[in-house]
Structure formats: C-alpha cells, structure tokens
Amino acid sequence: MDNSGGASSGVGVLDKAALVLSALESGPATLAGLVTATGLARPTAHRLAVALEHHRMVARDMQGRFILGPRLSELAAAAGEDRLLATAGPVLTHLRDVTGESAQLYRRQGDMRICVAAAERLSGLRDTVPVGSTLPMKAGSAAQVLMAWEEPERLHRGLQGARFTATALSGVRRRGWAQSIGEREPGVASVSAPVRGPSNRVVAAVSVSGPIERLTRHPGRMHAQAVIDAALRLSEALRRTG
C-alpha cells in the first residue's frame, strides 16, 4: 500500500523510508504503530526501520520503540550552519558600514574559536582577522559571549586561565553583549553579541573590532546596539525553516 498521498518520487524504497521518518515525527512508535501510521506491510516497515537505524536516522528509546535518530540532528545543524554563513555576508557588510569597523563572525570549536566570516574595513588602520583564523577562548569579547551561556561545569573550566572573570560573564548575560579593551591584543578593542539557534542556544558571536583610539575605552557605548541588531538578524535567519 502506498500512503504517500501522491508525493511519490518514483523511487519506491525512498518514498517508504520517508513515510517511516514522517511517522516518527510525532513521537516514539512500536513496529505495530509504524505499520498503522505508514500503511506499509509489517516486514517492510521493520526492514526499513532497522536499515534507517543502521544509518543513525532512526534510533530506539528505553522501551525499544523507534524514534528519530541523531544523524538527523547533525544534518539539521549542518544545514543551519550553511544558512548562517549564507546570511552572514550581507549582515557583516552592513555592520561594517554602520560602524566603520571590521566585523567578524566566530563559532566555538572545542577550546578555540574560529572566524568563519568577516567584512574588512575598506580603508585606514584595520584590525584584520582573516576567515579561518583560530583564536583562544581565553580573551576577547567574542570569547566572552561564546562562554557566558555555557553549562556551569564547562563555564568553570573555561574560566581557568582566562583574561575575564565569572563576574564579567555575569555582566555579559545581563546586558546581552560583551566588550574588551586590549584583552586579546594590545591596542585593540571589540564588541560582541550572541547569535542564537532555534533552541535559543548560543551558536556564534558577531563582533566589531578596531583600534582603541577609534573605539575608545567604552566601545560598547558606541557599537553595542549595532552589533546586537546584526546578531538578531542572524538569529532570525537560523529560525527560518526551509
């Protein structure tokens, strides 16, 4: 029985696998539940569910029922990252134009942070952070933002040897943005704000950076709102489906 409602791709086994995954979207299902939901023959439903389990697209819960597997979350995260990078270009360019300073986007990678996108200042003295640069999580406003909303245990570990304190991160959480003055590099100031994924988890940090002479010793007063606006635009892009 084909229960795909006219949405057949012409590749029968894929259509049936899609039926199984769609059936699990509403929650855990026994084999009997899968048969009812998909209209597939019991041996077919079982064979497909086990094959999808092999590829980690389906898993089992504590009761042995079929559930959606971890591979789907990994693929969704990768799709979200692609969407983030696709949106980052124009958002960072706008942020650079509004502030007159170089703009960057950082993601955490273990104990480091990596610059995944940037819009450089067009003229004058620049604080260049090339795309692909790996920087420590121990200093800088982007590191503060990527650390501030971590789980307590990871937060405690991350603060060991850091140039900022737990009190500073508490202020970052309260304000919703971070600033640093000569923390990562002498003479350089920066302002950063968090980019949040669909689950509200912080997935990246947007920053502007430049010499203290231009940004002053209170860079947040000048640029926090522009950086927050850029972070919100990226967060909204990640929340959009499709």
TrEMBL record:
InterPro entries: GAF-like_dom_sf (IPR029016), HTH_MetabolicPath_Reg (IPR050707), Tscrpt_reg_IclR_C (IPR014757), Tscrpt_reg_IclR_N (IPR005471), WH-like_DNA-bd_sf (IPR036388), WH_DNA-bd_sf (IPR036390). PROSITE patterns: HTH_ICLR, ICLR_ED. Residues 71-240 form the IclR-ED domain. The lineage of its organism: Bacteria, Bacillati, Actinomycetota, Actinomycetes, Kitasatosporales. This is IclR family transcriptional regulator NdgR. It comes from the Bacteria. Keywords: DNA-binding, Transcription, Transcription regulation. Residues 11-70 form the HTH iclR-type domain. Gene3D superfamilies: 3.30.450.40, Winged helix-like DNA-binding domain superfamily/Winged helix DNA-binding domain. The keyword Transmembrane does not apply.
